[in-house]
Amino acid sequence: MDIVTPNVGLLFWTSFLFLIVLVLLGQFAFKPIMNAIKEREQTIQEQLDAAKRAKEKMQELTKENERLIAEGRAEKEKIIADAKKAAAKIIEDAEQKAKIESSKIIASAQEAIQNEKKAALAEVRRQVASLSLEIAEKILRKELEKAGAHESLIEAYLKDVKLN
Q1: Which residue from 111, 131, 133, 112 is spatially nearest to 123, judged by alpha carbons?
Q2: Higher pLDDT, 103 or 150
Q3: Is 116 a domain residue?
Q4: 82/75 Cα distance (integer angstroms)
Q5: Alpha carbon distance 41, 48 (integer Å)
Q6: Cα torsion angle, 149, 152, 158, 161, sign
Q7: For residues 103 and 110, what is the distance between their CA atoms, to the nearest angstrom?
Q8: Is the Cβ–Cβ distance between 156 and 148 less than 8 Å?
Q9: Handedness of CA 113, 115, 117, 120 (dihedral sign)
Q10: Is there a contact between 144 and 150 (Cβ–Cβ < 8 Å)?
């Protein structure tokens, strides 16, 4: 049983050495370990704070990006609307120009038709006058073939000329 029961001297020296090791560890080992643990804790807290700030900054950037996208969409819609207005104006101007040109062409064609009509009427009158003279000439020749018809016609013309 000697092995199981400790001796008082052994117990004293074991306790005494344990206390010395405990004091030495407390003086030289525990303080640096505690300081290292505190530094590690501070580093971890700083990193958590930095991550939180980064997360907040990302949220701000996301909101800013969404705002910029919305502005871009609004600007795109405005540009498209302006382009549609410009296209409509160009089409309207082209239609107006085409109407003006067509009215000019129609007026020119009507004027040309009127001129051709007048020329045709003048030609018809000239031909009618020419035909009338030819017919009158033929009738007069037939009438004047009779012997005394020349003299009676000349006398009639002379009477007519004197009266005027």
Answers
A1: 131
A2: 103
A3: yes
A4: 10
A5: 10
A6: negative
A7: 10
A8: no
A9: negative
A10: yes
Chain-centre distance for alpha carbon 11: 99
d(CA 155, CA 161): 10
* pLDDT bracket for residue 3 (50, 70, 90): low
The per-residue pLDDT for range 4-27, each reduced to its tens digit, is 777 788 889 889 999 999 998 888
Structure tokens at 101: 């040109």
Q: Are 114 and 108 in contact (CB under 8 A)?
A: no
pTM of the model: 0.43
CA separation (Å) from 86 to 81, 89, 91, 97?
9, 5, 9, 16
Domain count across the chain: 1
Residue 132 counted as domain residue: yes
Give a yes or no: residue 89 inside a domain: yes
Q: Token match 């090791």: residue? A: 21
Supply the range of the domain harboring residue 128.
8-163
- Residue type at position 101: E
User: Running DSSP on this structure, what letter comes out for residue 1?
Assistant: -
Tell me the torsion sign for CA atoms 3, 9, 11, 15: negative
143, 149 Cβ separation under 8 angstroms:
yes
Predicted confidence band of residue 160 (pLDDT cuts 50, 70, 90): confident
* Residue 1 forms part of a structural domain: no
